[in-house]
Each structure stands twice: as structure tokens, then as C-alpha cells.
Amino acid sequence: MQSNRNSQTGRRLTRTSAMVNIYKMKVNATKKHILKALQDYGDHLSGEILSEQLGISRVSIWKHIRSLKEDGYVIDASARGYRLVSSPDLMLPYEFPGLEERIHYFPEIGSTMDAARELARKGAKEGTIVIAEAQAHGRGRLSREWLSPKGGIYFTLILRPRISPAYAPRINLMASVAVATTIKKLFGLNAELKWPNDVLIEDRKVCGILAEMDAEMDVINFVNVGIGINANTSVPQFVKTATSLKDVLGREISRKDFLSVLLGEIERQQALLMEADLIEQWKKLSGTLNKYVRILSPGEVIVGRAIDIDTTGALILKERSGSLKKALAGDCIHLREEAPNIDMGAVSRQ
After folding, report:
1. pLDDT in tens, 110-123
2. How far apart are CA 293 and CA 141, in angstroms?
3. pTM flag (> 0.85)
4. Domains: count for the chain
């Protein structure tokens, strides 16, 4: 009997959760239609016309307008109707037409990766996106803290690729190529890729990418790709290893426009995930190849010149002895030059 009651309770909670999600989607869809109508019209649009267009009451229109104001939209309300004055630079679901149902938005969250992992384990579809304006406990590789104040772009994308787990590192390459391409397309900046998952501008990190996989022996259940971009944040000048788009450009950017273009670029690059063209694009954008590097891998340190990446995304190094070494994962440190005091080769890490 206890088991049946628990099962019934679980089903009720599932139904309640589903109903809440459906309600949120309907609210977001209505907000989207109101915003589009106000944007397209440009002048005051009466509540009566909005009510007729959307098939809802004028009271409901007023409530949605009030909700949009609470989100940060400046909307002039008068006897003539409603007029959109300005929009906030927030990454709200209805700012991305066609993607609203896929987006889970949070003004602040512990970690988009944690939320995405829970969603993925519950069966969230390919392409589900968790977006946050700020993260309290953002993290990068090896569980390092990733500072995530307001002004940045932080999101995690759930993927369910039908590829062998051995090729999962290509997803990092795909995401980093998409970010660098977006930066070039929008701002004309030459962003470089640092193996395995960083994007640099002028040798300073502007974006970090973290991919977490849930897989069995030969099947990937899901890969969550977390992307953190220093967009409208300011990096102190004494920090020589990081920068932001705002600092480089000398102005703030539209984060929602950037994210919109980036999501489209990721989708385009996904189609090339198992193609040779993806590897070639990464090589052209690479700031790691032909540099002397130190790779800190679990149990091993490899020092040598990065000469290539293989089809799985592993970095190939040429040691001083002339032998080739492959790094599947690890921290990559760019060395300024091959100096006599650099111990070239592989050594064990205690």
C-alpha cells in the first residue's frame, strides 16, 4: 500500500510539474506576441487591438504588460494604448523567437550545469538550454570556480549526439569554433582557440567551455555543454590572463543579440560535428598549434611543441626527443618559447 501511495504521489507531482511548465510556456508565448506587436507597430497600440489579435481579455493584456515591466521593459501606457520605449539586455526566453519552449531562464542560479544535468537525467530533449544572468557557483574544468557576475553570458546546452563516446571531445572543438566565429562575425575581432576549451582575445581568456558527458560503454546518453563568456563585465587590469568583450571593444554589447547569433552558429557547427571540416576550422583558429606547451594531465605532465590534433580532438605533441605524444585531456599552458631550462618530455605526476 505504501508503495502504491508513493507511486500515486509521484505521478501527481509529475502532472503538477508538467502543468506548471505548460503554464509558463503559455505565458512566455503571450509575452512574445505582445512584444512583437509593440515592436512592429512602433507607436501606441491599444489594449483593444491587442486583445482582439491575441484572443485574450484586456485585463489579461494589462497583466502581461505589467509582467513585462517587471522584467525591465519600459512601456508607456496611456489612453492611446501601449508603446514600447526600450528593452532590457536580458536573455529572456521570448527574446529568442522559436526557442522559447527550449529555454529555462533564471535571473540567478547556482550553476546552469547542475540544472541542465538534472533536466537531462529527467529526459530533457536535445537542444534544451539553461540560461542565467548570474551564477552563484559557476564552475569550469576540474571543478574550478568560474566567476559569473551579472553582465556575462552563461548557459548550458543539452546535446544527445549519436556518436561514439571516443569522439565526444569534438563537441568542445565545435563549441569553441562557434564562439570564435561569432566574435569575428559580430565584431571583427580575431579570437583564437586554446586547446582544449578556451577562447582567447589577445592571449587573454574571454570564454570558457565545459562539457560533461553521461555515457555507457559505446553510447552517449547526453553531453551538457556549458559556455561562460565575459561579455559586459570588466576585468581588472592587473589580471593578465583574462579579458571581456566590453574591455576589448570599449563599449557594452547586446548580450541577447550575441547569444542569438551564437546559438545559430552552434547549430550550424553541429551539422559538421563528425566532418573533417570541423577539425580544419579549429586548426585555422588555433592559438595552440605550433606553440610549445605544457600539458598537465592526470598522472602525467607532457611538454613539447603542439603540432596537430587528431580526429578525436586529442592534441599531438612533439617532444624534444622527437617522439610524438598524445594528450586526450588536461590543462594546457602556453610556453613563450623552447628554452634550455624547459624539461621537454613526459614525466609522471605524484
Report:
1. 999 999 999 999 99
2. 18
3. no
4. 3
